[in-house]
Known about the structure:
The protein is mainly α. It has helices spanning about 10-25, 30-35, 40-45, 50-75, 80-95, 105-110, 120-140, 145-170, 175-190. Helix 1 packs across helix 2 and helix 7 packs across helix 8. Residues about 1-5 have low confidence and may be disordered.
Amino acid sequence: MVKSSTPSRERIVAGAADMISRRGLSATSIREMAKHAKAPLGSTYHYFPEGKQQLATEAVRYTGEWIARSLRKELEAGPAAGLGAFLGLWRKIVVDSDFHAGCPVLAVAIEEPQDDEIPPALTAAAEVFEQWEALLADSLRAHGAEAEQAAQLATLIVAAVEGTVAMCRAQHSTAPLDRTAEQLQALIAGATAK
């Protein structure tokens, strides 16, 4: 996700997303995120004066939109194609990182908040998951699924894919993705059959 030709702010955000996807939020300092992005710490604080939570929030939103762009494009061909692209994208990430990277959105979502307040990064994670679900549900409805079934299946797809990515990392194998893909494709076919 990190590209050296991108503008400094975007490079920092992409680097933060990559670090969070590998180590989680609590185990990653803003200094490490800046270093990973090959950006000066001063520039990082210039762009993100509120610190780590602000940068993490932007990293979650960046990842969310990156995935959503891919989903929107692939869902034009239908929900099965969208699911295939969603799974393919995560397969590439886990394989290319030698099973060290997962989803930064999930990593932020499972972190225990430091106090009773809901951190902005967690709010952003919830919004990203809702966005992905909405894209999938809209496609399912457009291809014949009933509204409630489409919403439930979209939630199941996002939850299954996110959990499967974690399983792939733990098992150092893409076998969970293969098994999940087969079952989710069958559910999509059943929901959209007329």
